[in-house]
Batch of 2 targets.
Target 1
Amino acid sequence: MSRVLVAMSGGVDSSLAAALLVEAGHEVVGVTMKTFCYSDTPSHGKTCCGLDGIMDARRVADTLGVPHYVFDVEEEFTRDVIDDFVAEYARGRTPNPCVRCNSNTKFRDLLARGEALGCDQIATGHYVRVAHEASGSYLLRGTDPGKDQSYFLWGLPESMLPKLLFPVGELTKDEVRERARTLTLATADKPESQEICFVPTGDYRDLLVKRLGTVHPALEPGPLVRADGTVLGEHGGYAGFTVGQRKGLGGGFQEPMFVLEIRPETREVVVGTREELHSDRVTIGELNWHGGAPAPGDRVDVQLRYRAPVVGATVVERDRSLVLELHEGRPAVTPGQSAVVFDGERVLGGGRIDHATSGITSGANA
Amino acid sequence: MDPVYLDHAATSPVRDEVFDAMVPFLAGHFGNPSSTHRWGRAARVALDESRARVAAALGARADEIFFVRGGTESDNLAVIGGHAALSAGGPAGVAVSEIEHSAVLEPAARIETEGRGRATHLSVDPAGDIDLGALEAACSREPTLASVMLANNETGMVLPLSGVIEVAQRHGAVVHTDVCQALGKIPIDLRTLDVDLLSATGHKINGPKGAGLLFVRRGARVEPLLHGGSQERGLRPGTEDVAGAVGLATAVELAVAEQEEHHRALTELRDRLESGLRPRLPGMRVNGADAVRAPHVVSIGLASITDGAALLMALDLEGIAVSGGSACHSGSARASHVISALYGADDRYATIRFSFGRSTTVEDIDRAIEIVPTVVERLSPTEVTA
């Protein structure tokens, strides 16, 4: 059996992934990636985020009788994920750092280290499946529709796919917990992590203030306007807003108001009604495909947010960007989020949303 | 195949004699040496005897030996406490070699950053020569505590202490030396080695962890770091670890008695490893090769390796237990402060430190010679062939 590198975060999913591979007879090497350090003072440099995760992963590895190592990827993670996260908010967009991490840091670093450690394959605890066929490998949605994480993995370089294993992709979360309990893994009943791993306070604006300084335009007050330019008031800094957001706009409107668009050049936050929030034409960039890009005229399924339902779309243009015409308008299509393209269960690839427009209004997100 | 442990400079297994000596003091003779009753008296006798045995082995007097909880504590006590005592009479500084253990470097840095005195760093070159001019300048400027280790933990390099002592004594400076790595490998006799303070620890010489000692020559002064008891004559308050002291004494006694023979055996192992690896690892650098070295460490630098942390993991998976610069640095891809001090901050060699002990065999060495080059080759970027 082959030697497999398993990325163990200290959560139940990757714990069970490691356990299943051990059961299957693989030689498992467990690793935890140390991505981020909360503390600023060098003398406390060892008290890091993920420290609990590292300890839990180490315990599980010990229970399974497999080696466990810590990969210090703090530098790479800061450069590729946190810097991008901050830059995207500064540009008035809403980044998805988990997509960025999977596409640009986690798997790349795992693969490089895995090769160094003589591992033939890489496994994680993602709820996603991978099909290895003679014609090539491709990703499929996880079996548990409530947990499916394929949305986060469209950015994986295609060349990596043949090396990947996702042992929990065919299980439901309940099954994962149950099997972890049966195996008496220490992490069997560990709660899900929800927040962004590098935002310790739970409020990303704290991080922006720390990284951008309080005088950055993204954090300074600006006008709150309607799509037609009518000024409604002032907001406290556009980085605090995301498209579709209702909270924090103040009251006194005739009907519920939502953020439609953020215009960093003028620091305007554009608001409008639920109806105005819908878009039916989406342009996506930073494209990545598994098994070839769809061509103009192709009908695909596209998912525009994590956990959002897919919507049918037709490819209308393909250059360095891809333009999709949605078969029905979707609310809050947000620049910076991912548009993931599917053919049924199969992940075809995707990109980052650059802008979305609507036939109904002229509210173009620049 | 059984894995091979070549990391004795990180820590070593407790030897049978030490283990057997300690056991009676863990449960049976468990008394507190400060107690008046028979339990206390039995413990007190064992503690006194241990002190006398350590003193005899090192050429010291019993009242010059203080038991502490390991090498790091001993170094901290010597540097911070020694400097504090020196400062009682006015401003004083510290002077440390750049390749000291962090347990010396960081206390020295704190003394400076906290405004308690100047810290002078003495450069060391790969041949082991230390900047005595800088030491001279520091010592002639103000009362100084000089701390220079006898053998370096990462490379095994032996520093020329006699030169340091000569300069220091001319200016009335206090000299501390850390012999955690040197003890048992090279001769140490405090009747001839004229230092004021000396730090040693048990677990590098097949003794227990958490048991160390500070030698304070009669007349030298050290302020305590902890307060709240008269144990160790107030220099290290806290109920004594009698089993630890007994174990430490046994380990020190045996290490000193066997030092010459051990040196011979270790040198053979070292030469075998170096000559075995050299033809199979082209471009390998032996760190500190031109210096006098303690025989239990071989530190090699490899230009072809960019990820030193991965190298250690890969070797572990193949059953070879070694470390990078030192155990404290494993997991970090950065060059250690020792390698940076010797070869420059932009040195790009990855380090593997092999270190041997009593249980190391020729077969262990041959396994390393066989396995290490194959792993190194796997981790080295393949040359592009057109």
Note: Residues 16-257 of chain B form a domain with the Aspartate Aminotransferase; domain 2 fold (CATH 3.40.640.10).
Target 2
Amino acid sequence: MSTQPQQQSSSSQPIAFVSAQALRARMHDAVNNPHLRQSFRGAMDFLMAKRAAQFPDQDELDSLRALSEGIRQYSLSRLPDLLEQLEANLTRNGVKVHWAETPDEANAIMLDIARRHSAKLIVKGKSMVSEEIEFNHAMEAAGVGALESDMGEYIVQLAGEKPSHIIMPAIHQTKQQIAKLFAEKIPGVDYTDNVDALIRIGRNVLRDKFESADIGLSGVNFAVAETGTLCLVENEGNGRMCTTVPKVHIAITGIEKIVEKLEHVAPLYSILTRSATGQAVSTYFNMISGPRKAGDKDGPEEVHLVLLDNGRSQAYADEQLRKTLQCIRCGACMNHCPVYTRIGGHAYGTTYPGPIGKIISPHMMGLEQTHLLPTASSLCGACGEVCPVKIPIPELLIRLRGEANSAPHAHPAMVGQGAAYDPKISFVWRMWARLYGRPATYRAFSWLATRFRALTPRKQSGWTVARTPLQPAPRRLRDMLKDRR
Amino acid sequence: MSARDRILAKLRATQPAAPNALPDLDAHYTPRVRGETKAERLARFRNGIEGFHAEVHISSEADWPALLARLCADKNVATILYGADTPAGQRLDQAAFPATTLRPWTGQVEDLKADLFHRVDAGFTQTRGAIAETGTLMLWSSEAEPRTLSLVPPIHFALLDAATIQPTFFDVLRTENWAAGLPTNALLISGPSKTADIQQTLAYGAHGPKELVVIVINAEGDAQ
């Protein structure tokens, strides 16, 4: 396995993002780990083929992508109004709505709910936002158990790891590793690498937990403003268990996962499952519009929704960066990313790996810690091509590189602007722009450069770390062309 | 200022001056409408849901309780839980199940949680309809048919009237106007629960039912 990101003791840090050197070291380790390479290569090839099979009709795909992009952009253009509408309708339905600006605030809200119910165990459906705020860590620090129930998340939690993919959290583990893990960590379980048997073991362990848990936690795929409905997409049934069986259900989501009309979820749901895992539809689409009502025989007695900002409003403020928030978290960008496929999800060190992680993490954590992420890309464009809501990911990567490398200024678009600013490099580029922007100066410069090429320095800052030094050619192209005529 | 007010203020301050145009869903869906007969819709639904490992049996209004009894016997279902206060439930109240105890749901889930998790072998529900495009059942939870009926027991038997199969989810939302009033829990179900979280190997019976059995009432009588 690749080196794991170290857990930090402070819960205010969404995930331990270590220094640039550590990112490079992790990437180096990952690239040199043949097992990891094989796991990801195989899994990504499989997912790419499955997605492709779901879209045999290019016209339908184009039309559906344009529609999905339109819905997401429309929703974002009315985001504050829709959030208020959602809150009003959820409240009318009997759901308690909470707002949190930071991970700490979100955890405090949920811990408070847990304490009011003297909760000992919270059973969790899959939620990347809960990963983003280090929910499990915060609960455990306060003495409340938080147990993952999605099979992949359960495996990852048992192994003391983080998800390496937003849809398939345990994609980096082989069945033999999981078999060993289960035999070691689950009492009374013998080694078996039969997948059906392994799933049966997980099912049996977790059934008891669904039955006994005090609180169920879930994420949200789409929140519908006009009806006050929380929609959850899943295959395993653990999401339904978490939101149905315990007396309290807490849902947590980013403020951007909202649509106005119920009919808007139809195209988004269709393109989500097809883009994510190449399924025409998931096993369950669970639409929750409130707690148990008088007369109902089951369902939670309390439902809470926590709306989390955590940097999203920063992305929202800029027209170009706002497109980041169109994301419906399908993971197609990572499945098609040549960098992700080679280094896996853990090397990034952030909750969200791959292309979407590179463009969303800087808003959550600041560019100071994340400015290298947008550079971990060849800008091949695959992520933008497959994105179901047409987020221009390569453009955003270039924008973020610019934000990180430009001189710090008074009204930055994001926290950490200028974090990678280097006056020396900046000077070189300024000189380059001046020379290349003026033909007369450029001619003079190139004339001098070819004459004095022997004086070129051998060490050229960052360039020569991994490359041979640049040296002007003995003759200019323009001179060579002159000879030809 | 509360977190709510601060978040909303930040968004308001930077919100686009004019909202984008409302997306035109009809432009995508209308040209893709299929002129399908009921039989074609049923065939498409069946093909879809069987692809997700559900079992489909075609029956009739008169015969389905006997078919359910036979299927329960075949699958060694000792106890089947159902909602009594529904048209289908009333039929079951009068049916003879030679090998299976018919247990109507009574009381709150807390009263029968242990049985539900450990002793009930199957749950039976009606359905609101189905979606041909994806092979999907639609269930609305109700006082008579609580949501755990289709979730906790290892086998879920679902009764579907072929006349209620619609082409797409979008058609359902539009023609039935779900936005006008949803139950506390509305569900789309496409097959038994499953997972591919271990090495992309598909396994059925993750946390929900291991088997989904659909009994279709086909009124035109083309039962096979």
Note: Chain A touches chain B through 94 residues (CB under 8 Å).
